[in-house]
Write a structure and sequence with these properties.
Layout lengths: L5 E3 L4 H5 L4 H10 L4 E5 L2 H4 L2 H12 L5 H13 L8 H13 L4 E7 L9 H18 L5 E5 L9 H13 L7 E5 L5 H11 L2 E5 L14 H7 L5 E6 L2 E2 L2 E2 L10 H10 L5 E4 L7 H15 L2
Parallel strand pairs: 1-2, 1-10, 2-3, 3-4, 4-5, 5-6, 6-7, 7-10
Antiparallel strand pairs: 8-9
Length: 297
């Protein structure tokens, strides 16, 4: 199971801030067996050369209808001819796509989906743009994940569910896995809202623990509730009283128990490392994978 481990690209934040190229890190991790990569939105990404390319593509999006943009995305990855007013821009992305051959890339961002938007039209357009980026990154298996790091306190559950239903219905001609992740709220509540809203769940058990090791809700409660068909991804990182670690080791999270739940229930989604960033992310990822494989012996 853990030999197929992938990564969330925010583990590269320190290296990219120090001048490393996004595509070079992607190729290096791919060569070391990390084939699933979730491209996580953030300043580190926007400040990278790949982030600059993405921003240029975002600016070009309004030039094309939804169908035209989808056609360009498909053609870029299949190396077919396509018509565009931004030939150099999409040819630059095609170069990136060749480097990403054999990888499964998805897209993730922070978004306050648990709260009613203050401007519905702006909110809608933001999700449409993000869905198009997710499709551009992997037309064969596009996935968009949202994590709400802003909403706190009591949750307006009907509003959250309405948001998810609305987001899931956008761009119906773009086949896509739409998911949310548990963050400040319990995994059990996030799962309930995701299922009601027609979304999949990305589960991160580390996010269920407070700094002192007490959980927002016991993991056993979540595992007694979840169906494997409701999960699309499981994130792995470790937390202790010192915070989230830069590589997997001993701490609050019982990875062996998680693996047992997933294996015995036939889980088919991906597994992604999300360590705290350092300038040694590959070494941290390799040691993390070795630790997890050893846990399963």
């Amino acid at each position: 199971m853990f030999e197929k481990l992938g990564i969330v690209t925010n583990i590269w934040a320190e290296e990219i801030d120090s001048g490393a190229r996004f595509d070079d890190l992607m190729v290096e991790f791919s060569a070391n067996g990390f084939k699933d990569m979730e491209v996580r939105e953030g300043d580190y990404l926007r400040n990278s050369e790949f982030g600059e390319l993405i921003q240029q593509i975002e600016s070009a999006m309004p030039t094309y209808s939804d169908t035209e943009f989808k056609t360009i995305c498909d053609a870029v990855w299949t190396e077919n001819r396509f018509q565009t007013e931004h030939r150099a821009l999409f040819e630059a992305f095609a170069v990136f796509a060749r480097k990403a051959d054999g990888l499964t890339l998805s897209y993730a961002m922070s978004h306050p989906w648990l709260s009613s938007p203050t401007d519905s039209e702006t909110d809608t357009q933001h999700i449409i743009k993000s869905k198009k980026l997710a499709y551009l990154l992997c037309p064969q298996r596009p996935r968009l994940r949202l994590v709400d790091l802003d909403t706190e306190g009591d949750i307006n559950e009907p509003a959250a569910i309405a948001n998810l239903k609305h987001y899931a219905a956008l761009l119906p001609d773009y086949p896509m896995i739409f998911a949310v992740e548990n963050a400040r709220q319990s995994a059990t509540l996030t799962l309930k809202l995701a299922v009601a809203g027609g979304a999949k769940l990305t589960y991160d058990e580390t996010n269920t623990y407070r700094g002192d090791g007490t959980p927002l809700n016991p993991p056993s409660e979540f595992w007694a509730t979840v169906k494997m068909t409701d999960l699309t991804s499981v994130h792995f990182k470790q937390q202790t009283e010192d915070g989230v670690l830069s590589e997997i080791g001993d701490g609050y999270v019982d990875f062996c128990a998680i693996a047992t739940h997933l294996k015995t229930r036939g889980y088919t989604g991906d597994l992604l490392l999300e360590n705290t960033p350092t300038t040694r992310s590959l070494q941290n990822a390799l040691r993390s994978r070795a630790y997890l494989l050893n846990e399963m012996l």
